[in-house]
Design a protein that fits this description.
Elements lengths: L1 H7 L7 H21 L4 E10 L5 E9 L4 E13 L9 E13 L5 E3 L9 E5 L3 E6 L2 H19 L4 E3 L3 H4 L10 H16 L1
Parallel strand pairs: 5-8
Antiparallel strand pairs: 1-2, 1-7, 2-3, 3-4, 5-6, 6-7
InterPro entries: Sec3-PIP2_bind (IPR028258)
Pfam families: Sec3-PIP2_bind
Protein name: Exocyst complex component 1-like
């Protein structure tokens, strides 16, 4: 009886954050393989954004072979594939299409709109202003950190930020980790101090 109970014990369940991290990695690999690698580019960062058109949309940051940093909007559409002799698959597949693209040096200002509220919307000032709505505020700050770092390393000029909380963009020397864990830790520290 003991052997059967161990076989029937529940399988470990992935936490929701582990699931989304795994899905994010798969999405990154797929977009890199299908969209960026053929153009000899390396995707550095991407966030999901909300657009009026149907389908999923992403704001991607990539670096070309000649070290030019590119920002592009990518639309993911489900495409129906018909079975043929080469492919034994029938069904829907993802198709990634770049709908807009700019060079980082064209970005004059990255405007977070209001640093005092949890607002996922921001403005990218090129020749025209391009409004963007990220899926959450953490994604907006993740993109801003990436663009600031790439601007410093590839352009040797500082990216002009407006209406962002700078402590979440470039941590002080005490904190060396620039990832989302840093943002989460500071938010928890702030909330803990409010409870005192």
């Amino acid at each position: 009886m003991q052997a059967y109970t161990s076989l029937l014990s529940p399988l470990p369940v992935l936490s929701s954050s582990a699931f989304f991290t795994e899905m994010s990695s798969l999405l990154r690999e797929e977009m890199q393989r299908v969209l960026f690698r053929p153009e000899k580019q390396k995707m550095v960062e991407f966030i999901e954004i909300e657009e009026e058109k149907s389908g999923r949309h992403f704001l991607c940051v990539s670096v070309s072979k000649n070290k030019q940093v590119l920002i592009s909007v990518v639309q993911c559409e489900k495409v129906r594939h018909i079975k043929n002799k080469k492919s034994h698959r029938i069904g829907l597949e993802d198709q990634y299409v770049r709908t807009e693209m700019w060079a980082l040096e064209e970005l004059r200002i990255l405007d977070g709109r209001d640093p005092d509220i949890d607002d996922p919307c921001f403005l990218m000032h090129f020749d025209k202003v391009r409004p963007v709505k990220a899926i959450n505020c953490a994604a907006k700050y993740c993109l801003a950190r990436c663009l600031v770092a790439l601007s410093d390393s590839h352009q040797h000029t500082e990216l002009h930020l407006r209406n962002f909380d700078w402590t979440y963009i470039k941590p002080t020397s005490i904190y060396s980790n620039r990832g989302d864990c840093m943002v989460l830790m500071r938010i928890c520290f702030y909330a803990f101090n409010l409870l005192k």
